[in-house]
Design goal:
By secondary structure, the chain is mainly α. The chain contains six helices and no strands. The mean pLDDT is 87.
Length: 126
């Protein structure tokens, strides 16, 4: 949840944030974004399976070596942060939950205005 709230904080569209939280694969993304997210997911879930072909795929869609390093560092930072917070059993602050719910409410309004479905809520925030 917190990662999506950072995107919302940076000016992300509330409906798009909800879509990302639900399933980024359903998003209208560029090939470069899709390849990057596939690699970041693999780096998060099964890092020992990452290899040179993953980096070659990133380069093939335009990511530079510096981009790849930056993406890996951001991924590693958030993974470390989540593992520390979850591992210590820390709770999400009420203000974070309130902000997520407010964003979801605005996303529901946007979905209605745009005539699209509201994404599912896999984290049970709404």
């Amino acid at each position: 949840m917190a990662h999506a709230e950072y995107l919302r904080q940076e000016g992300g569209d509330d409906l798009e944030v909800e879509r990302i939280k639900s399933d980024w694969r359903q998003m209208d993304l560029s090939e470069a974004e899709r390849v990057m997210l596939e690699w970041v997911e693999k780096l998060t879930v099964a890092p020992s399976t990452c290899n040179r072909s993953d980096i070659d795929a990133m380069r093939a869609v335009g990511w530079t070596d510096r981009d790849v390093l930056d993406i890996a560092q951001v991924c590693a930072y958030f993974n470390m942060r989540v593992r520390i917070v979850d591992g210590l059993g820390l709770d999400v602050d009420e203000w974070q939950i309130a902000r997520a719910k407010a964003g979801a409410e605005n996303a529901a309004k946007l979905a209605s205005e745009r005539g699209v479905e509201m994404p599912s809520d896999p984290w049970g925030v709404r």
